[in-house]
């Protein structure tokens, strides 16, 4: 059966088309997630639990920096003062399943973007569709960059701070596994999605919801929001908040530049049709 032209498709046809794209996305995530589930021992021991070891690259780097400027820091300790434990019967199995699903989503993210692009691209001009490969590569790069930022920056900073924070020597940090893995998952996924800001601004500018002037006008409010966001996803110390806030502010500035390019391109097209 021949595929209908996008202009001839009804609302229900669009929903049907979207349904099949979503089904293929789910299948991809399940397949990759199954592979991740079968490799769970490696994923947990070598990746998820790695920030619990003081040999983690982030701790090693920050320890060397602290020694260079001659200041005391918890990044140079022997071990993280934290004991993981499981308090529910299905706790470890549940952690394994959800981690596999998240791993499936992260690894198959380029395919997820590809399927979403296939859904929206028929409504775009031929020249815009030519840039699909670049769009998929850039959006995937930004997402993976955000994931790495969350894993190597936000996770170790949060874990080290919260594990060493104590209200009394009478209290030991015996953390439930769901709490620890939840922190890792949230940090990684949130960072990955935040780094998609330039892509989001690109599409918002394309549909006329955002302009460079709007982004510049509300930049000071965006700065406040960024600082609040960094305070939420990081420990409440100034250094960690600055480390997280800087790349987000850079992304915001890049988004303004991208918005300018989109507006410039739209004005050129408008003049060409005059």
What does this structure look like?
This protein has a two-stranded parallel ribbon. It has a domain at 11-196. It is built from twelve helices and two strands, in the order H-H-H-E-H-H-H-H-E-H-H-H-H-H. It is globular. The longest helix is centred in the C-terminal third of the chain and has 35 residues, at 238-272. By secondary structure, the chain is mainly alpha-helical. It is 73% helix and 2% strand. Its main location: membrane. Keywords: Cell membrane, Membrane, Protein transport, Translocation, Transmembrane, Transmembrane helix, Transport. It comes from Hyunsoonleella jejuensis. This is Sec-independent protein translocase protein TatC. GO terms for molecular function: proton motive force dependent protein transmembrane transporter activity.
SSE class:
mainly alpha
Order of helices and strands: HHHEHHHHEHHHHH
- Helical segment count: 12
Q: What percentage of amino acids are in beta strands?
A: under 5%
Radius of gyration: 23 Å
Could you tell me the number of beta strands?
A: 2
Query: On the 0-100 scale, what is the average pLDDT?
Result: 82
Strand order of the largest sheet: 1-2
Helix content: over 70%
Biggest sheet: strands, sense, closure? 2 strands, parallel
Q: Which stretches of 5+ consecutive residues score pLDDT under 50?
A: none
Q: Indicate the overall shape.
A: globular
Q: Please give the alpha-carbon distance between the first and last residues.
A: 40 Å
Keywords: Cell membrane, Membrane, Protein transport, Translocation, Transmembrane, Transmembrane helix, Transport
Protein name: Sec-independent protein translocase protein TatC
Main location: membrane
Subunit structure: Forms a complex with TatA.
């Amino acid at each position: 059966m021949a595929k209908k032209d996008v202009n001839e498709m009804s609302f229900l046809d669009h929903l049907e088309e979207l349904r099949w794209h979503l089904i293929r996305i789910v299948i991809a995530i399940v397949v990759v997630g199954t592979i991740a589930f079968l490799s769970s021992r490696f994923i947990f021991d070598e990746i998820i639990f790695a920030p619990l070891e003081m040999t983690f690259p982030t701790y090693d780097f920050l320890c060397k920096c602290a020694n260079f400027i001659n200041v005391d820091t918890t990044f140079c300790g022997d071990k993280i003062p934290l004991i993981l434990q499981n308090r529910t019967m299905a706790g470890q199995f549940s952690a394994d399943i959800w981690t596999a699903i998240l791993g499936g989503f992260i690894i198959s993210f380029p395919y997820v973007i590809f399927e979403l692009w296939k859904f929206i691209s028929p409504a775009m001009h031929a020249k815009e569709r030519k840039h699909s490969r670049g769009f998929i590569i850039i959006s995937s790069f930004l997402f993976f960059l955000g994931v790495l930022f969350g894993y190597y920056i936000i996770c170790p900073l949060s874990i080290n701070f919260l594990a060493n924070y104590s209200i009394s020597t009478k209290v030991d940090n015996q953390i439930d596994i769901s709490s620890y893995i939840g922190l890792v998952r949230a940090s990684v996924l949130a960072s990955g999605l935040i780094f998609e800001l330039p892509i989001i601004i690109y599409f918002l500018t394309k549909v006329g919801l955002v302009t460079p002037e709007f982004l510049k006008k509300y930049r000071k409010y965006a700065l406040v929001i960024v600082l609040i966001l960094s305070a939420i996803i990081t420990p409440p110390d100034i250094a960690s908040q600055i480390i997280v806030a800087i790349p987000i502010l850079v992304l915001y500035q890049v988004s303004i530049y991208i918005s300018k390019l989109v507006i410039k391109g739209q004005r050129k097209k408008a003049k060409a049709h005059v």
